[in-house]
Structures are given as structure tokens and as C-alpha cells.
Specification:
This protein is of the alpha/beta class. The chain is built from 6 helices and 7 strands. The protein is globular.
């Protein structure tokens, strides 16, 4: 058998190194873009601004609210100002999409478990059932980290107003919703430190959740 010379060995080694980089999963290491857009309505049409733009002073942000978490602690807009927030809407007795959403949100929690600047808000869409004690039980069952991940309950009309008119989580564009219509969505929403929407993600899709994690890191660099 003909032996490879030194030059051939070096070329082969280089090719193997390139292949190893190509097989590496970089989905959680860097964002898809250098900066993230801003969103202000249900179609999620992106708006691009310089961070110093005067337009951002009046741009859409999550309004004032007051809800209680799994420990009975009041959570308000002041709690999340200055934090990067991942938000979703769920209910503790959901047998369908919620368990998978909780699993993927737990993955997000793990990615930022030691980062005090990143918090998670999960709003209950059945607040009459999901009392503080029920959410405390759910938190214990799913290893939800206090102070990092807040399970929220409170006034139903407030929660539904936030979901539909502030976070725009429903995908039924153009359909008028009645107050009694149920709110159910798999979407995760990303907020920056000024409560502005910077991304929306499919909470059932691990690839989309990886993009969310990467985009959080982009916000951290702003």
C-alpha cells in the first residue's frame, strides 16, 4: 500500500477539522442576526430601528399589570422592567400542548438558570382553577425555579387582554374575539429590558426554542 506523504496527511487533517466544525450544533451559541427587530401588532411585521431612534420612545410595550405568582407574590410591570423576559400562556390542567411547552420552557430555564437578568412569565388562561396553591403544586412538580420562572394568576380579563392586545399571541388574525372565547396558544414571546416585543417562537418546536435562546443572547449584548 502506498504511504501518504506529509503534505497529504496535512490536507486530510484539515478536511477532517472542517467536517468536525460543520457537524457542530451552533444553534444556541449565536443569533441569526446581529440585532433583533421590534414588533407592535398581531401580524408580527418586523420594524428595524437604531436603538437610539426617537421612534422607540413611543413604540409598543407591555402595559401596566398586576398578577400573583406561585408564591403569592405580586408581579407587575415594574418587576420585568430592566429584565429580558420570555412569556407564554398556559393552564396547569392542560392535557394537550402545555406539557410540551413546559418541557421546552424548562430547557430555556436551564439555559439561563444563573442569569438574574432573564426571567420567564407563564400566564394561566384558567386563573379561577389555577390558584396560587395550584400553581405552587405545578411548580414543584415541574422543578420550576422560584425567582426565575413566575407562574401567574389573577384577573381573567387582565390576562386575556395582555395575551390578545399586548403580546399578540393568537394567530387568528382578523377574527373578532368575544370575552368568553378561550385563549390557547403555543407561542413564546421575547421582550427586551424595556418591555418591547423582539421575537415570537413556536414553543412546541425545539429548533425554534433554540433560536429563542440565541436571540436572548443578542439582547444581552445590546
Amino acid at each position: 500500500m502506498k504511504r501518504l506523504n506529509k503534505s497529504s496527511i496535512n490536507i486530510l487533517a484539515g478536511l477532517l477539522l472542517l467536517l468536525s466544525f460543520g457537524c457542530t450544533d451552533n444553534s444556541e451559541k449565536s443569533s441569526r442576526v446581529a440585532t433583533l427587530p421590534f414588533y407592535n401588532e398581531a401580524s408580527f411585521t418586523p420594524h428595524w430601528f437604531n436603538l437610539e431612534s426617537d421612534s422607540l420612545s413611543s413604540f409598543h410595550s407591555i402595559p401596566a399589570f398586576e398578577l400573583s405568582n406561585q408564591n403569592g407574590i405580586s408581579i407587575t410591570e415594574e418587576t420585568i422592567t430592566g429584565k429580558i423576559v420570555i412569556a407564554d400562556f398556559f393552564f396547569a390542567t392542560c392535557p394537550g400542548i402545555c406539557p410540551k411547552m413546559t418541557e421546552n420552557m424548562h430547557f430555556v430555564q436551564s439555559a439561563f438558570k444563573n442569569d438574574e437578568q432573564v426571567i420567564i412569565l407563564s400566564h394561566s388562561v384558567t386563573p379561577r382553577i389555577d390558584s396560587v396553591s395550584a400553581l405552587r403544586e405545578y411548580a414543584n412538580e415541574h422543578q420550576i425555579q422560584d425567582g426565575k420562572w413566575h407562574l401567574l394568576t389573577g384577573d381573567r380579563s387582565l390576562i386575556y387582554g395582555l395575551g390578545r392586545n399586548a403580546y399578540f399571541v393568537e394567530e387568528d388574525l382578523g377574527l373578532t374575539k368575544k370575552p368568553d372565547d378561550f385563549l390557547h396558544t403555543e407561542n413564546f414571546v421575547l421582550l427586551d429590558k424595556k418591555r418591547r416585543i423582539r421575537g415570537i417562537y413556536n414553543g412546541l418546536n425545539k429548533g425554534s426554542v433554540n433560536k429563542l435562546i440565541a436571540d436572548v443572547k443578542t439582547l444581552q449584548a445590546e
